[in-house]
Automatic annotation (TrEMBL):
Organism of derivation: Pelagicoccus enzymogenes
Pfam family, one: tRNA-synt_2
Protein encoded by which gene: asnS
Domain Aminoacyl-transfer RNA synthetases class-II family profile: 101-451
The protein, known as: Asparagine--tRNA ligase
Listed EC numbers: 6.1.1.22
């Protein structure tokens, strides 16, 4: 007998015999001569009701079949007499696969998300987290489909790297040196030449620089992998390990880059709304009552576009008291981004042409001498979800920028080479996978959309 999934059984068109269901017991309700089980197998939000009569094999020694235990049920799929479900299983036999005693922490009651983070190994067995992680999987698939359909190639950029793409110094070191007794050089500093890779190495903050090398060979590429930031941010939108999607396109400027970012965000949201209807209904009904409307609104309208300079003017004219100062040349803070997208435009906004002093070395200088061809997409409820730019493809200007940012030409010789050999205008962006998932589900904390969140002070599991 092959195992059938609840997701498929729920779509059944008629009653069927010889069904094998395997999953975990959510609840058990006992009557005199029979009991009901709610069994969930993870394939969908719905659990299957199983009716176990005293005539069923295994009935007499079913005491251990309790909340949290795993079971294997053989029986018949029949129309349910009960309310709330169309199908149920009349068990012919019930087997306890693995018991769970009364210490199982997910007894039938609502638990706070904070508590569930402490048992992150068990939380996917709840309705909310089961739904989050099924949607996460579907969203990843939608992303690959989006790029594959447009002839982008998927490139695996390295996770261990010697370069600091964003130049922010938020790097986790990768080292096998003995911390108690590291080798020292003549200056008395740790000698990383003796380290595993023969040089200082780190976990990547972005696959962009390596991505650029492949875009200038394969044309359009994207990366989709884990990235790491040793940034001491204690917010609901920052994680130390998160996944990023980074497309990079040869023969492309900032305008086309912004177009792609918008089309991408809309397309994957639309696909998830189509393929995850049941799971999303949980978020629409119980997490954020305005979520459905917000997603539909985002799909139906063009994103607004303003330059950084216009954004600053809007903020200054708003009459709002912000905690952080608004001034041309100063970074927009989360409160400013949220004002723009939530209050002023009430829609996603792409802000572009940022002051060059705020941005990394690789961004393309605009003719005004003050700004670079950078863009950020801001969305309501989250703020920045995408950051991207056109890259500096002119050798002289790139070298100047590197100098200004204190970046050694020697270390980045391969990146500079791209500007020497067949350089082309090119552009790309990075989208934070978890931030997009937060936007789609309305889940307010990044710790609740990644299986095992890594944030300052926490690396349990
Ligand atoms: O703006 P960022 O730092 O851009 C880059 O890393 C570029 N190299 C991307 C590129 O052009 N290829 O990060 C891009 C996105 C942000 O917009 C945000 O969505 C997400 O990555 N992000 C984070 N998500 C969760 N936790 C963090 N600490 C994040 N930092 C950035």
């Amino acid at each position: 007998m092959t195992r059938l999934l609840i997701a498929d059984l729920m779509k059944s068109e008629g009653e069927r015999d010889a069904v094998l269901l395997q999953g975990w017991v959510r609840t058990r309700r006992d009557s005199k001569t029979f009991f009901f089980l709610e069994v969930n197998d993870g394939s969908c939000l719905k659990s299957m009701q199983v009716v176990v009569n005293e005539t069923a094999e295994g009935y007499s020694d079913s005491k251990g079949v309790t909340t949290g235990s795993s079971v294997s049920v053989k029986g018949r799929l029949v129309r349910s007499q009960g309310k709330g479900q169309m199908w149920e299983i009349q068990a012919d036999s019930l087997e306890l696969v693995g018991g769970a005693d009364e210490t199982f922490p997910l007894q039938k009651k609502r638990h706070s998300n904070e508590y569930l983070r402490e048992i992150a190994h068990l939380r996917p067995r709840t309705n909310l987290f089961g739904a989050v992680f099924r949607i996460r999987s579907k969203l990843a698939f939608a992303i690959h489909r989006f790029f594959n359909d447009r002839q982008f190639f998927y490139v695996h950029t390295p996770i261990v790297t010697a370069s600091d793409c964003e130049g922010a110094g938020e790097l986790f070191r990768v080292s096998t040196l003995d911390p108690k007794n590291p080798p020292l050089n003549e200056e008395g500093e740790v000698d990383f030449k003796e380290d595993f890779f023969g040089r200082a190495a780190y976990l990547t903050v972005s696959g962009q620089l390596e991505g650029e090398t492949y875009a200038t060979a394969l044309g359009n590429i994207y990366t989709f992998g884990p990235t790491f930031r040793a940034e001491n941010s204690h917010t609901s939108r920052h994680a130390s390990e998160f996944w990023m999607i980074e497309p990079e396109m040869a023969f492309c400027d900032l305008a086309a880059d912004m177009d792609l970012a918008e089309e991408f965000v809309k397309s994957v949201i639309a696909e998830v709304m189509e393929t995850c209807e049941e799971d999303l209904s949980l978020f629409f009904n119980f997490v954020d009552k305005e979520l459905k409307q917000r997603l539909e609104f985002v799909l139906s309208r063009p994103f607004q576009r303003v330059t950084y300079t216009e954004a600053v003017e809007i903020l200054l004219a708003s009459g709002k008291k912000f905690d952080n100062r608004v001034e041309w040349g100063v970074n927009l803070q989360s409160e400013h981004e949220r004002y723009l997208t939530e209050e002023h435009f009430k829609s996603p906004v792409t802000v572009y042409d940022y002051p060059k002093n705020l941005k990394p070395f690789y961004m393309r200088a605009n003719d005004d001498g003050k700004t670079v061809a950078a863009m950020d997409v801001l969305v309501p409820g989250i703020g920045e979800i995408v950051g991207g730019s056109q890259r500096e493809e002119r050798l002289e200007l790139l070298l100047e920028n590197m100098k200004a940012h204190g970046i050694s030409e020697e270390d980045y010789w391969w990146y500079v080479d791209l500007r020497k050999y067949g350089s082309v205008p090119h552009a790309g962006f990075g989208l934070g996978f978890e931030r997009l998932l937060m936007f789609i589900t309305g889940v307010a904390n990044i710790r609740d959309v990644i299986p095992y969140p890594r944030v300052p002070g926490h690396a349990e599991f």
